[in-house]
Every structure is written in structure tokens, then in C-alpha cells.
Amino acid sequence: MRTESIAYAPASVSNVACGFDIMGFALERPGDTVTLRLSDRPGVRITKITGNSSPLPMNPAENTAGAPVIAMLERLGINVGIEIEIHKGLALGSGIGSSAASAVAAAVACNALLGAELPNDQLLSCAIEGERIASDAVHVDNLSPCLLGGFVLVRGYSPIDIVPIRTPKSLWCTIIHPHVEIKTKESRKSLPRTVCLSDVVAQTGNAAGLIAGLLYEDFGLIGRSLHDVISEPVRKHLIPGFAAMKQAAAEAGALGCSISGSGPSLFALSSSPEIAKRVGDTMSGVLEGLGCKHSLYVSPISQKGARIISTQDHAL
Amino acid sequence: MRTESIAYAPASVSNVACGFDIMGFALERPGDTVTLRLSDRPGVRITKITGNSSPLPMNPAENTAGAPVIAMLERLGINVGIEIEIHKGLALGSGIGSSAASAVAAAVACNALLGAELPNDQLLSCAIEGERIASDAVHVDNLSPCLLGGFVLVRGYSPIDIVPIRTPKSLWCTIIHPHVEIKTKESRKSLPRTVCLSDVVAQTGNAAGLIAGLLYEDFGLIGRSLHDVISEPVRKHLIPGFAAMKQAAAEAGALGCSISGSGPSLFALSSSPEIAKRVGDTMSGVLEGLGCKHSLYVSPISQKGARIISTQDHAL
Fold first, then answer.
1. Which residues in B have their CB inside 8 Å of a CB on A?
2. Is B31 helix (H, G, I), strand (E, B) or coil?
3. Exposed (0-12), middle (13-18) or buried (19+): which is B223, by Cβ within 10 Å?
4. Are A124 and A144 in contact (CB under 8 A)?
5. What distance in Å separates residue A303's CA from the closest CA in chain B?
6. Residues of each domain in chain B carrying CATH 3.30.230.10
7. What percentage of chain A carries pLDDT values higher than 90?
């Protein structure tokens, strides 16, 4: 057991255009940082929340970083006092896995603090307890890439079947986050309950094509596969300047561009940092023209995912 | 230009459980053989049809092997007389790409006969003219693996985007063809017009999983991905002994088993010829118990697809 453990977990993009509820990838930055400290006072407490945060619950059972810590202590049957400090690099409701990043960082930090050496599937299972607070239906398409890095396929949900997808190192991502609010729960309600067969064929073809494109490192195929016939058509009107940003991204050389998760952020994939930056500038220009405040991130795809950034042991 | 050219094109399995209308693979055997001969008599004629055939049209414009030859001559603006002999190794309406095999063999043979050296996309485009005779909607998920060999993903249809998928050499296929008739056109009518969102998620997850499984040569993942939530539920009752055969295949060690194309054949994939043979024996036993006549094939996945097996040149 250690006295302190600090973990970082990155932003992630789920759905990835053609992979509704089955695909996600992790960025290198931005991300959330969670610090856990052993405390003489029993119980789990959140002592500080800093950074890019709307007001977040200080009750650990209602906090996406608190719940995974409680879950891990219960599962291991360990009864110690733990203080949690959360630094939010991600804005809530941005659609780039803010709750997943806090939950995963907390699970990874707690694992190190307790010296538990839990494997990834059990870390994921604890992190799910955090994600559950943010969304009725728990999807692991943010959690699993956030934990593992790279692209991840969630082949199935019963049982959860996570398949890491080898990701080309030169793939970069642009994220633009218009500062408008879309609640995940509400955004899911706008989804169609059924999909016509021709759209199912298009979606499965593109999802399969994206996997092949990633594993073949075929950027052309990746680009041709990045189309969403399910959620983008019903969600795009919630995002200011959507069509113009998508067109700008394509003209600036992006392989593809769509909604990140349930929005409002858009992601664009590019084959180099230079293109990714240019894509960001043109998309940003569209929102500036609309007078819409926004944040812009340009990052490689994370090959590592969540990680411990520091630990302190008991003084001997 | 040559005086004679003989091409072989193999059986193929489309849909492949999770890849409705987007995936197919080629077997090494059985297959159709098409012989083309230059003739002094103008026009295209079918002179002989042998083998495993129900009565087939002798009018080349109405025959799946004739139409591609007519199409190729028209496109190349060549006016020569051609005689066609067809040897059917595949039974019509078996669901293992009988019309595709004849169409592809004819296109490949004609290409060699004329010395046209057309690339694969143009051969496919001519072969489509043959497939069009057998089915209202032209799907290339039999034609393209039959032409190219291995697994093929049809990422999209407009334009047609064919992605060959590297296929593990130790993958074997068992085909069992119960001698009952299911017309492709009628079988398609039984398909659902819409699919509920959770089934779309399952289908895309499995389609993406199958591609990853093939490219990683991960037989466990291939097996976990071989589920069909779209066509199997509405088509399985058309096939005698379906549930018992599927269970028998699993018990004999198959990775997965589902309907080949629109049926009535079932395919099962296995990781060795020994397992594939055992799977065939147990499935065959089920149909024997029901008194249902059937054919059984055990074959590696074809790595080559259609090919020229002999040519004769003009005597000098």
C-alpha cells in the first residue's frame, strides 16, 4: 500500500462515426488527473476539485471519480480512509469522455495506491461504476480506450468483449468543442429506435472498413469508412456550424469528421500533425464566424491510455 | 486473341453470419468451369451445359455465364463469335454462389480469350451482368470473393468499394447443402425492413470483430463474432434441422456456423481440416436422421479465387 498515487487518464472519442456504441479511441491530451491519498480518517472523501469544472458532486458516491474508488475498496474488502483530489482537464458534457477519464483515472490511481495489481478487466469494471453516474446505459466505448489507449472495439456487451485495435502512429485527431450543452441522456433519446436495412448494411460496411483501414494502416480506407448513418443525422442540428465545420475539415485534408460521442464536440482524423492543426484552424474559424465560443485540441492518438504519473510510499 | 480459354471459379459464402450484404469468402472447391472458344459463326452461343445443373437457359443473354461475355464484347467493341460450354460444379439455388461462379468464370475466361487484360474491377463489372439475371438487387459479396479469393469486405456500394481481407491459411469451411429449394428473390422478401438499434450495435460489433479476428488470426475472436441477428432469425425455419445442425457443428468444434447467403446451405468455419471434416460428419448425421438428402463439402478457404486453367492459342 502507498500513501499517495496520482493517475492521468485521457480524453476519448466514442462512436467514431461508423462505430455507434462499439468503437472509441483515446487522445493523448487533454485529460483528467486524479490524486488519491491514504487518510487516517475512515471512508472515502473528495477534498478538492480543480480545473475545467462545472460544479461537481463532492459526495463520492455521486461523483464519477468517487464511485470507482468505493467499488474497488468494497470488492477487495479493504477498509481504509482515502482522500480524492480531482483535476478536470476535460469539460463536463463536452462529448470527449469527461466522466470516463475521471472514472478511469480514479480506478488506476486506487489500484496503485492499494497495490492491488488488478487486471484491466477489473479496473474497467470498477470504472463502470463511475460512468454509471453520468449515463443511464453504461457503454464502455469511452472507458476502454481511455484505459487501454489507441482504438478499441467493443465487440459485444454480454459479456463485455474488448478488442484493442492496433492504431497507426501517424494518426492525429482534432477536437473542436463548441461551448453549447448537450446532455448525453437527452441526446440518446433523439436516436432512432430502428434503422432501415440499407443503413444497417452501410453502417456495418463502414465499421468493418474502419477496422481493416486501421490494421492495414490504409488512410484512404479509414477516410472512406468514416460515415455515420445512425446518430449524426439526428444529432447534427444540435451543433452550431456543423455542416460548415465538416466541409472545412474535409477541405483542409482531414480523413473524416463527425460527432464525438453524443456531442457537441466534433472530431476529425488526419494523417499528420500539420494537417490536424490546419483542420483545427479552419473548423475554429467557422465557429468564430458564428460568434460561438469553443475549445480546440490537436493530439496524437494515445498509444498508452491511462497511466500512473507519480506515487509516494510510506516513509520507512 | 486465343482460340480457347477455360476458367474455373469457386463457390463462395456471402453474409458470413455478421456481414449481411457486406462480406463473403471463397472456397477452394466445388466450383464451376467455363470454356470459351472462338467461332467463325458470329454472336455468342451456349453449346453445352453439363454437371450439377437444373435446366439452365441456353439463350446467352438469359444465362449467368452468357451475359458477362456479351457485356465484355460490347464494352471492348469487339465483334467475334464465341461458343460457351458450362460445367456446373455448383447446384442452382444452393446458396453458395452458383450464379456468381458461372459469371466470374465466364468473365475471366473471356478476358483471357480476347487477351484483353482487363483489371479486376472491370471483370467484376462484367460478371455483375451475369449475377443480375439471378437476383433483382445485385450484391457483389459472392462475386468479389469468387473473383479474388479469400475473405472480401464490400465496404460500400456506391461506388463499389472492395477490400480484400487477409485470411488465415489454416481456416477451413464445411458446407452442407440440404436439397430443399429457397429462391434468393423470395428469401430476401422475408428480411426485416428495419432493425432495432440494439441489434444494429450487435451486428456492427460482430462485423468489426470478424475483420479484426481474421487480420489478427485470432480464431477465438472469429468464433465470437460469427452471430447473425438480421437474416438468420427469419430464414432459419426454411432449413430442415437448422438448430440441431448448428448445435452439432459447435459440439464438433466449429468456430461458428450460420446460413450461407440466403440458404439453404449452412457453412461452418473451423481451424483445421480435421475439425472441418468432423463438423461435416455430425451435420450430415442430423440431415440423415431427418431423411433429408443433402450434399457435403469440406474445403480450405480459397486464397486464389477464379483462375484460368487452360488456354489454346492459334496454330501459327
1. 18-23, 153-157, 161, 163, 165, 191-197, 200-212, 215-216, 221, 224-225, 230
2. strand
3. buried
4. yes
5. 18
6. 2-165+302-311
7. 89
Domain A4-166+302-311 - what CATH class? alpha beta
Parts of chain A belonging to CATH 3.30.230.10:
4-166+302-311
Q: Which among A27, A251, A287 is positioned nearest to A150, based on CA atoms?
A: A27
Residue of B nearest to A165 (CA): B212
Pairing of strands B151-157, B23-39: antiparallel
- Model ipTM? 0.95
Cα(A128)–Cα(B157) distance, rounded to whole angstroms?
Answer: 38
Contacts of A102 (CB under 8 A, 6+ apart): A9, A32, A34, A63, A64, A65, A86, A88, A90, A130
Neighbour-count burial for B121-151, b at 16+ CB within 10 Å, e otherwise: ebbbbbbbbbbbbbbeebbbbbbbbbbbbbb
| Nine cell digits for residue A312 | 509516494
What cell numbers appear for B310 in the block? 487452360
Cβ neighbours of A62 (radius 10 Å): 12
Q: To 10 degrees, what angle do helices B98-114 and B120-134 make? A: 140
Report the C-alpha gap between B97 and B26 in whole angstroms: 9
- Dihedral angle sign, alpha carbons of residues B276, B279, B283, B285: positive
Q: Is the pLDDT of residue A175 over 70?
A: yes
Determine if residue B212 is left, alpha or beta; phi over 0 gives left, psi from -120 to 50 gives alpha, anything else beta: alpha
Cα gap B305→B12, rounded to integer Å: 9
State the Cα–Cα distance between residues A307 and B13, nearest whole angstrom: 44
Inspect the interface and report whether the beta carbons of B21 and A224 lie closer than 8 Å. no
What does the longest C-alpha to C-alpha distance in chain A come to? 66
Q: What is the pLDDT of residues A188-228, one digit of tens each?
A: 778 899 999 999 999 999 999 999 999 999 999 999 999 99
Q: Residue range A27-56: average pLDDT?
A: 93
Q: What is the pLDDT of residue A181?
A: 83
- Name the fold adopted by A172-300: Alpha-Beta Plaits (3.30.70)
Q: What is the mean pLDDT of residues A88-100?
A: 93
Annotate A92-103 with b (16+ C-beta within 10 A) or e (fewer).
bbbbbbbbbbbb
* Selected residue of B153, B195, B200, B234 to mutate for chain A interface (largest A Cβ count, 10 A): B200
CATH code assigned to B2-165+302-311: 3.30.230.10
- H/E stretch holding B242 reads helix B242-251
Residue with cell string 480545473: A51
Q: How confident is the model at residue B315 (pLDDT cuts 50, 70, 90)?
A: low
**Residue ranges matching CATH 3.30.70.890 in chain B:** 172-300
* Residue written as grid cell 476458367: B7
The chain B residue lying nearest A213, using CA atoms, is B163
The stretch B280-303 carries a mean pLDDT of 97
Residues 6+ apart with CB under 8 A from B96: B11, B12, B13, B27, B90, B175, B177, B260, B261, B265, B267
In the predicted model, what is the mean pLDDT of residues A104-112?
A: 98
Q: Do B208 and A153 touch (CB under 8 A)?
A: yes
